[in-house]
């Protein structure tokens, strides 16, 4: 089965056409399908339209949020309730074309786990949307090592197994290809159509760039230090101790050799502050280590992922935990 998931937020003018286009595309494929529409706190009557479509077509499922939780939460709800082996998220503003879905499914049949859409000829404002997007995509590719032209395109196709267990928070949906790449997923992309918005209004502004940069820091931290947070906290802490030691030695030198008063020399204060900073970073690193170990051990999570096994009985697998966790 193929599950198409669409977050909806005040898209009443686009919903009927969106449903008809998705239905026409999926019926041509001749495969079982479902359309999951997530109403993310709409206030323009979208909920009534969604319920009317669900009443006349059992292939359409509707989820109503109590309030607006954002696109990432709506996308996560679509993944949670989808029943298909392949999940295809897309936007509800008709800027994504459902007719591109077969192209993405064809890529999955070639052996890929994820196919990402690339809005090669994007129909958005060149200054406010396109330029920041290009810069952000280049930065994300550079930092993450996952080479895609368009992380922000919602139209993607995922095999269910590569996104099971992945949880998204904040505005992290654009980084989902990075998360699945950590699980060993094979990722490709195809150029898809992109239309100018004809109804409704965009939910994004230039402040989105700041959110992307903040989320990118989180993604990089999780990539490098999720299982060993002491590496980053310890590095900062030891560096602070180094600065503190050098500052203190130089302050003593100026006091004992040159007779300069500590009051006139800010280096002693710098040494104290950096020393305290180093101590706090080390303690935070130890706390993060305990939290990380609790996360894995209390839930029986492994720090590895198995792609497949041969001549192995899954029922005989024993997870070994440290003595303190037993």
List keywords for this structure.
326 residues; alpha/beta; Spore Coat Polysaccharide Biosynthesis Protein SpsA, Chain A; seven-stranded mixed beta sheet; 10 helices; 47% helix; disordered C terminus
- Give the count of helical stretches: 10
CATH topology of the largest domain: Spore Coat Polysaccharide Biosynthesis Protein SpsA, Chain A
Number of strands: 7
**Strand share of the residues?**
5-15%
What's the N-to-C terminus distance?
Answer: 41 Å
Largest sheet: 7 strands, mixed
Low-confidence stretches: 316-326
Kindly report the spatial arrangement of strands forming the biggest sheet: 3-2-1-4-6-5-7
Name the CATH architecture of the largest domain.
Alpha-Beta Complex
What count of domains describes the coordinates? Answer: 2
At the fourth level of CATH, the homologous superfamily of the largest domain is Spore Coat Polysaccharide Biosynthesis Protein SpsA, Chain A
Anisotropy-based shape: elongated
Report the helical percentage.
40-55%
């Amino acid at each position: 089965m193929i599950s198409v998931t669409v977050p909806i937020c005040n898209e009443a003018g686009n919903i009927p056409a969106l449903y008809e286009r998705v239905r026409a595309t999926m019926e041509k494929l001749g495969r079982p399908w479902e359309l999951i529409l997530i109403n993310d706190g709409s206030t323009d009557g979208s909920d009534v339209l969604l319920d009317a479509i669900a009443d006349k077509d059992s292939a359409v499922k509707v989820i109503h949020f109590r309030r607006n939780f954002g696109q990432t939460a709506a996308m996560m709800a679509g993944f949670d309730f989808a029943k298909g082996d392949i999940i295809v998220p897309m936007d509800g503003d008709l800027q994504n074309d459902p007719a591109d879905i077969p192209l993405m499914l064809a890529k999955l049949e070639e052996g890929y786990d994820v196919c990402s859409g690339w809005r090669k000829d994007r129909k958005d404002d060149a200054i406010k949307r396109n330029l920041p997007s290009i810069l952000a995509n280049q930065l994300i590719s550079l930092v993450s090592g996952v080479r895609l032209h368009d992380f922000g395109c919602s139209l993607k196709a995922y095999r269910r197994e590569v996104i099971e267990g992945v949880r998204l928070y904040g505005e992290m949906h654009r980084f989902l290809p990075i998360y699945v790449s950590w699980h060993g997923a094979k990722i490709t992309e195809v150029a898809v159509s992109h239309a100018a918005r004809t109804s409704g209004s965009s939910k994004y502004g230039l402040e989105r760039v700041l959110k992307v940069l903040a989320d990118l820091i989180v993604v990089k931290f999780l990539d490098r230090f999720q299982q060993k947070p002491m590496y980053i906290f310890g590095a900062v802490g030891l560096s602070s101790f180094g600065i503190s030691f050098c500052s203190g030695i130089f302050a003593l030198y100026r006091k004992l050799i040159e007779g300069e008063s500590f009051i006139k020399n800010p280096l002693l204060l710098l040494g104290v502050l950096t020393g305290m900073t180093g101590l706090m970073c080390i303690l935070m690193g130890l706390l993060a280590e305990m939290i990380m170990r609790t996360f894995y051990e209390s839930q029986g999570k492994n720090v590895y992922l198995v792609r497949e096994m041969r001549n192995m009985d899954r029922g005989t697998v024993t997870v070994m935990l440290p003595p303190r966790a037993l």
